[in-house]
Please model this.
Amino acid sequence: MSVKRSITLLSAILIIFALMLSVYADGGAVLSQVYSHEQNMYIFIAGDMNADNLSVKVANRSAEVLESGLLTDCGGTVRTTVLVDISTSIPLEIREPIKKYIGSIIENIGANEEMRIATFGEKITVLHDFTNDRYDLSTATSDINFDNSQSMIYDAVYNTIPELTAVDDKPCYYRTIVITDGVDVTKTGITKEELLLKLQNDTYPINVIEASKAKVESENKDLASLARVSGGAYANLYPDCDMGGISSAFSTDGVFLIRVLLPGELLDGSTRQINIDDGINSIQFDSKLPLFDVPEPEVTAAPEVTEPVETEPEVIVTKPVETEPEAESFFEKYKIVIIIAAAILAVILLAVIISAVVIGKKKKDNVIKNRTSGNSETKYIRSDDIQTEFLSEDEARGILGCVCISIKNMSNALQTWDFPLNKDLTIGRDRSCRICISEPSVSRKQCVIRSDLTIENVSNSNVTLLNGNSLTIPKKLSKGDTIKCGRITLSVENIYSSELGADGSLNKLTEFVRL
Model:
């Protein structure tokens, strides 16, 4: 197939994809959990959100976003309830694998996670309340005995849902992992319909594990509906299954937190509509706001008038002013049309760029190679789809004598950068950054490495982590340090001098230049 036909076919596919994307733009990120604590509302999103362009409205009133980013980066807590069915209907072959699976998630419990172990049959027994102590949780797991004659699944799930509130004034994300064979003999208590209604209203995720003696051919519809309605995940646990895959499906690493300051005049206990928009995703839901009295600011008393002033009372007749409803903004009115038009223009531009690249590739097909001249070598490499070139030795003389740094993308071994620190080294998503990372969770300009080897966070919305700790003030970099920007983790591979005879090859004495 010719290059021209390939580009035409690719352009058609991209246009169709863009139109589908514009129709289903609201599906990229979904609401996982929401609750309010005093004047704060905590919103947890499953999926990527653009922290640089967040807009939150409560009952069509703009609300201040106090904090946003990945839950793990914001110092939030995860509270997981592990609920185990101990009825005698659980197959003998799967009982030990159930304990083994619980042991594996206890062993890999994160520093920001607390776990509660509970069993149920005819009644609910909490073996250990929320803690992250691995020994206590393992001891509680060893006490699980499958000796109850029947189980009441929906009643057990309903009555173990904790109160959704902040912990020590910090955001907390709640969820339940229920392990059962799906055999329910509920005669009294909570029905399946009552539980599903509560999960839908309270946005509480239930991750369901169907335990069986062999791999099931089709999922249990009742258990699957429990996971689907609540926004949780569904998995099958059987002997010799991939337990690591189940744990990955239930991971909370991708949960995005938005903390909002609610308008004080709306805190009357009523249910209000919440709208969230980041320019790509649009999420709308209803949530009950708390009944909370916002402290009024202190008012300084006006100075007393020493001499009374006699004035005749003035009679003012006022007429009620009829206010017209606020007109809908242009963007909100034509949002769908704008999104579709922007998507089509973006695809056309992309097709033009691809055409130019393909044509240029024919002319420069032999450019990406090594060429040797004497003892010095010039290399051309590709990093993050940008063709870059090392300067020659003569061109590099102007920057010899400064400190150089080597940085590696731990998620992509092919992305390694060597830079002299003769000027600030900016890391971010913007194309103007010297290290450009195309990842939505990274800010346009995330952090800066100065010439004195100090690193500073310059993002107003995202947190930069240095060796796992929030970078609140500039700190000195050392070899082996890790820098986390959103979901991307960078590693400082080497720090060396650029003077002749010092550590590093000739290529490490030179600087990237975009062609």
In short: The chain has three domains: 3-71+257-288, 77-253, 371-514. The chain has ten helices and 29 strands. Residues 18-27, 321-327, 366-398, 500-515 have pLDDT under 50 and may be disordered.
